[in-house]
Amino acid sequence: xxxxxxxVQRYRETDGAEGHDWNxxxxxxxxTQGRSSGRPYTTPLIYQRHGDDYLVVASKGGDPDHPQWYKxxxxxxDVEVQVMGDRFxxxxxxxxxxxxPELWGxxxxxxxxxxxxxxxxxxxxxxxxxxxxx
Length: 134
What we know:
It is built from four helices and eight strands, in the order H-E-E-E-E-E-H-E-E-H-H-E. The protein has about 130 residues and is α+β, with helices and mostly antiparallel strands. The protein has one domain: Electron Transport, Fmn-binding Protein, Chain A (Pnp Oxidase, Chain A). Strands 1, 2, 3, 4, 5, 6, 7 and 8 form an eight-stranded antiparallel beta sheet that branches. The longest helix has 11 residues, at about 100-110. It is globular and about 35 Å long. The N and C termini lie far apart (about 35 Å). The model has no long low-confidence stretch (mean pLDDT about 95).
């Protein structure tokens, strides 16, 4: 099973033929800029579509702290996304309180463990909206 750096490498090499479909869901690659280093960091993340946007969840398995990739995009919301062979620039934003329930529902239908992760932490797990830039 693909995970971490190997997942990113195989996904890139095959334009997602290996790595997009994972554990009965779908994965994209999100590249953020390190908020301290300025270096690019790429993370494979479960995603779903919502209209023209892509949704990801900053769960870190219910850890009490946000994942590094989320902290990076809060500092700099200009990101790169790869879905299969489609690579594009996007602007990331955290779903607001009004839209989060609908978006959370979309994501828990594809990965039900998100509900477990939320129960395991006091932190509100963010849903991130990736808006494609033209």
